[in-house]
Amino acid sequence: MPAQPQTIADWLAWALRRYARHRVALGQVADNAHDEALYLLLRTLELPLESPRSVLRRKPTPAQAEKLAEVFRRRTEEHVPAAYLTREAWLGGHQFYVDERVIIPRSYFVELLPEAVPQWLPAGKPVKRVVDVCTGSGCLAVLLADRFPEAKVDAIELSPDAAAVARFNFAQNRLGARIKLHRSDVFDAVPAARYDLILSNPPYVPTREMRGLPEEFKREPAMALDGGRDGLDVVRKLLRQARERLQPHGIVALEVGQAKPALAAAFPELDPHWLHTADGEDCVCVITAARLRGWNG
User: Which of 63, 135, 197, 233 could form a disulfide bond with 228, CB atoms 3.0-4.6 angstroms apart?
Assistant: First the structure.
């Protein structure tokens, strides 16, 4: 291949070599370098993401080539996450604005919310109120509003910067009237309400592991990642407050990543049920209101 890539296919091959050489960390936008690099190519060139394969034969203009070189320099040398370069992320068919004020949307709830989570709620009983705790960009609150179109949806976020992004995303997805955003540390500043479903993808990385994160993940807000000594600081507070916030038939659904063993060890009496995911990580659990009522934590 020539030193200066010519076609989009050339640029893709060139980018993949850079990804490997600079040991780029993945998982924020795509789980493989090919898909992420192609996404950056199409977005930078302002081409549709659903472009046909023939698009690879196109030749960027000199000005476009200059833009591509800069985008991939920032991605591979500076390790800027792809979503921060494009200012967007996709989850559950929805497009979200993102920048360095929020963690990049990614969650197993996109797989589990359509069927696996609702199966823990009473069949035939309307879901009237749901809440997303630690909403960040607001992505999961939007998915809740999509899944439960008749329900009132609350979203809780402590960071004023993240709350501003969430508010923008609610408006962009035309859900500003359906989702109520609360600036609060878990439920501290949220008016009393009883929920059918309390959902959260909280910070869960143990503090001691923060330094070892790949550079891309260190660029995300530490507040959205750092879960304290064992990764469960926010989880503990949420579970204590959930006892007074759930309907008798209600559930808490938590995504806790690598903190799964810590949660299972810390709360055996809550009998968390781990939902199966396609990749086998199974790091989302459901805890029932009945278990929480009998808990002395």
Answer: 233
